[in-house]
Amino acid sequence: MVKIKPQPGIMKIDLYEGGASQLSGQDQVVKLSSNENPFGPSPKAVEAYSISGKALHRYPSTSHGHLREAISIIFDLPKENIICGVGSDEIISLLCQTFSGQGDEVIYTEHGFAMYKISALAASAHPVVVKEKNRTADIKNIIEKCSEKTKLIFIANPNNPTGTMINYNEIQELAAKIPEQTLLVLDGAYAEYVDDYDGGLQLAKNSNNVFVTRTFSKIYGLGGMRVGWGFGSKSVIDALQRVRGPFNLSVPALAVAEAAIKDQDYVKKCKEENNATRDWFISSLRKSGLACDNSFTNFVLPRFKNQSQAELCDQYLQSKGFIVRRVDGYNLPDSLRITVGNRKTCERLINIIDEFLVG
Ligand SMILES: Cc1ncc(COP(=O)(O)O)c(C=O)c1O
Question: Which of 84, 88, 166 gets mutated to test ligand 1 (max ligand atoms within 8 A of its CB)?
Answer without folding.
Answer: 88
